[in-house]
Write a structure and sequence with these properties.
The protein has a 5-stranded mixed β-barrel with strand order 1-2-3-5-4. A hairpin with a 5-residue loop joins β1 (2-15) and β2 (21-27). With 251 residues, it is an alpha+beta fold. The protein has 6 helices and 8 strands. α1 (88-104) packs parallel to α3 and α4 packs across α5 (218-236). Bound molecules: zinc ion.
């Protein structure tokens, strides 16, 4: 059992006893962990209120080699997610970030780049960032980093470029756009506008900040959310709790 240190985002807390909490943390260096925070529910605990949902904190924990929970020994608050007190939309957006990180990542599988993107997204959601755009950017980044990004430029069946004009076939199970030759016989194929696929490309592009000036009119947003929600639900094997909320973000 060794003491590990990392930056962490609090994804979930569950009361464990009169005085303790079980916390799910997304750490920068060790990925997701589950840890017992003894005494965290006491008024003057060593954790000093650092374990609120979506707080960014610096933690020290004892890593258990078995399936047992890790033991949190220290948590110093770096930044609190304050949106709760001023804006429900931003609060729900924060909940969605927590749900996404919790559901998409595996325990003990570190992704520092995803951590940095999530930390940045939470800061923007808690500030003046565009909620719809910031969430979409994080979703596409998470899919890319975790190897689940759908094929958006070339056919997922034959790898040939797909024309993104008019309507395009998108295979939910195959994971991306399909050309006319590959589409027949495929299950769970939906028709999407080329504009939606181009928008998804823009938000997935790690080399560009063009997404920040992307226009997301209600029509595009509605269709885009329909496709992406369906894709994510397929990937996770269930519908994320906050998906209905995302549909309401259109401008
Ligand atoms: Zn094809």
């Amino acid at each position: 059992m060794s003491a590990e240190k990392s930056l962490a985002i609090v994804l979930r807390t569950v009361d464990f006893s009169e005085t303790s909490l079980v916390v799910t943390l997304f750490t920068r260096d060790f990925g997701k962990i589950g840890a017992l925070a003894k005494g965290a529910r006491r008024p003057k605990s060593a954790f000093e209120g650092a374990l609120d949902l979506l707080s960014l904190c610096r933690v020290v924990f004892l890593h258990k080699s078995t399936d047992a929970l890790d033991l949190l020994t220290e948590a110093k608050l770096q930044r609190r997610f304050r949106a709760a007190s001023r804006d429900l939309t931003r609060l729900y957006a924060g909940y969605y970030v927590a749900e996404l990180l919790d559901e998409l990542t595996h325990t003990g599988d570190p992704h520092a780049d995803l951590f940095d993107a999530a930390e940045q997204a939470l800061a923007e959601l808690d500030g003046e960032g565009d909620v719809a755009a910031v969430l979409l950017r994080l979703e596409m980044t998470a899919l890319r980093v975790l190897g689940h990004l759908p094929s958006l430029a070339t056919c997922v069946g034959c790898d040939r470029p797909v024309e993104l004009e008019g309507r395009v076939a998108f295979g939910m199970l195959d994971g991306g756009v399909l050309c006319a030759d590959c589409r027949p016989g495929k299950r769970q194929v939906v028709s999407v506008s080329g504009g939606v696929v181009k928008t998804l490309q823009q938000f997935a592009d790690a080399t560009s900040d063009a997404w920040r000036s992307a226009l997301l009119p209600a029509k595009v947003w509605g269709e885009l959310r329909g496709v992406l929600n369906h894709y994510l639900a397929n990937l996770l094997g269930k519908k994320p709790k906050l998906h209905d909320f995302l549909g309401s973000l259109a401008k």
